[in-house]
Design goal:
Oligomer: single chain
Number of strands: 2
Number of helices: 7
Distance between the termini: 44 Å
Largest sheet: 2 strands, antiparallel
Strand content: 5-15%
Strand order of the largest sheet: 1-2
């Protein structure tokens, strides 16, 4: 009998969407399979932010008049998929710190992430910001039937 991980890898390999989603840094077979099963159709979301909000990866908004105040990350939505995305973001962050190894080669995403690490007061905030960005990239790749390409 096959393990669950082996079955997930086989399932995602046989699915074109799963192969495209895995081009995003930090997204592996387990996250790709979870995205496909939880989200279903990405076109039900108007934007990547809407999908990230569905997963609980965006800050809450407290607005009045013309002032926009952003609060903490809401943590609403699918906790299982959100935790998988955060774990994938932690792996991608480690890859970015190790001089551009793996999927996180030198490019705009790696530069953005290393600058973000310098600005944020805790590492976990940078990890959640990257998980948010990964969800948005996954939505765009999925909706537009493209693959991730690292911009120089």
């Amino acid at each position: 009998m096959q393990s669950t991980d082996a079955m997930m890898k086989m399932l995602v390999r046989s699915n074109e969407t799963g192969r495209r989603l895995q081009t995003v840094p930090g997204v592996g077979p387990l996250i790709a399979a979870a995205l496909i099963s939880v989200i279903g159709d990405p076109k039900r979301f108007g934007s990547g932010r809407d999908m990230a909000a569905f997963l609980g990866l965006v800050p809450s908004q407290h607005t009045s008049g013309d002032k926009v105040r952003l609060g903490r990350v809401t943590k609403r939505g699918d906790s299982g998929l959100r935790s998988l995305l955060v774990q994938g973001a932690q792996a991608a962050l480690r890859a970015a710190e190790l001089s551009g190894s793996g999927k996180m080669k030198d490019g705009k995403l790696r530069t953005w992430l290393l600058d973000l690490l310098k600005r944020k007061d805790t590492r976990n905030k940078a990890v959640v910001a990257l998980a948010n960005k990964m969800a948005r990239m996954a939505w765009a790749i999925w909706k537009n039937d493209t693959v991730y390409t690292a911009a120089a």
